[in-house]
Amino acid sequence: KAGVTQTPRYLIKTRGQQVTLSCSPISGHRSVSWYQQTPGQGLQFLFEYFSETQRNKGNFPGRFSGRQFSNSRSEMNVSTLELGDSALYLCASSSGTGVNNEQFFGPGTRLTVL
Amino acid sequence: SQQGEEDPQALSIQEGENATMNCSYKTSINNLQWYRQNSGRGLVHLILIRSNEREKHSGRLRVTLDTSKKSSSLLITASRAADTASYFCAVGGAGNNRKLIWGLGTSLAVNP
């Protein structure tokens, strides 16, 4: 099976802009979770989608949003970008809910906000 | 704050030696997972141990869980240079806290 894919791999934006990141899970996986990884804060949970429904949400402002489509592909959107949003954004898929099952990670999208 | 906290933050050993990393957490858990991250293969799942389990093995990896002490350890035996990576514990919360919360990781360097 193909692994988790994320696009784009690298992105440079300026403050105030918005960005959309895409994630295609492993075929058959219905759960997609998103994480933000920075050197100082480590991996921080953004949200999890399961069968197109948001099941859980981390402690991020409303500028961070996501959705999942019927084919399980997921997108996350960050509006009004801030310098502090510069990070590696990781997507993970699992066959069941992410908290109880092995998660398979994509390579990430490296976002730089100037 | 992070749910899982790894110790030590960094570890440097020689090939063939064993490496032990520890993870402590604060609340009730459903499970605890260990992952490895390096530049070549990204973030990869190693072992998931459930709250009613005490020990699990996978190849050269051994994970223990002590729920009374709210801690887990990951032992890598006979380490290889390819084990050089950052190792993270991720705590799967129980009850209403059904999120996977990550520690900051242990950076392991295995010297040839």
Would you kindly provide a written description of the structure presented here, covering whatever features stand out?
The complex is a heterodimer of chains A (114) and B (112). In chain A, the strands form two sheets. In chain A, strands 2, 4, 5, 6, 9, 10 and 11 form a seven-stranded mixed beta sheet that branches. Chain A has a four-stranded antiparallel beta sheet with strand order 1-3-8-7, with no helix packed on it. By secondary structure, chain A is mainly β. The model of chain A has no long low-confidence stretch (mean pLDDT 94). Chain A is 0% helix and 53% strand. Chain B is mainly beta and 112 residues long. Chain B has strands spanning 5-7, 10-14, 19-24, 29-38, 42-50, 55-58, 61-66, 71-76, 85-93, 100-102, 106-111. Chain B starts with a strand and ends with a strand. The chains are: A mainly beta (114), B mainly beta (112). Chains A and B meet through strand 5 and strand 10 of A and strand 4, strand 5, strand 9 and strand 10 of B.
Helix content of chain A: under 10%
Number of extended strands of chain B:
11
- Based on secondary structure, the structural category of chain B is mainly beta
Alpha-carbon Rg of chain B, integer: 13 Å
Instruction: Note the quaternary state here.
Output: heterodimer
List strands and helices in order, with pairings.
The complex is a heterodimer of chains A (114) and B (112).
Chain A: E1 5-7, E2 10-13, E3 19-24, E4 31-38, E5 42-50, E6 53-57, E7 64-68, E8 74-78, E9 87-94, E10 104-105, E11 109-113
Chain B: E1 5-7, E2 10-14, E3 19-24, E4 29-38, E5 42-50, E6 55-58, E7 61-66, E8 71-76, E9 85-93, E10 100-102, E11 106-111
Parallel strand pairs in B: 2-11
Antiparallel strand pairs in B: 1-3, 3-8, 4-5, 4-9, 6-7, 7-8, 9-10, 9-11
